[in-house]
Model the fold of this input.
Amino acid sequence: MLAQDMTPKPADLTQISKRYSGTFPTSEVFAKIWGRDDEIISTHAMSEMPAFYVAPFLGQDEEFENSAGRLSPAQIRNIISFLVTMQEQ
Done:
């Protein structure tokens, strides 16, 4: 509901595969979420999406806090698995 008032508009995450000729671009999505240019070569320009350095809604999450608020590779793979399930055919 809030998307119509946001600038820039959020991406339609149900259309990722469609934008890549029907194949989900796992590596590209992982790199985008990971977002650390110093550790993975980025193929994207600067993003409007902020890093998740502070996430008070998660409660006490020792792993999250110890990683400076960054998602682990396993957490990113879980997000990607979810994104794959919501792709429109």
About this structure: The chain has one domain: 13-42+52-85.
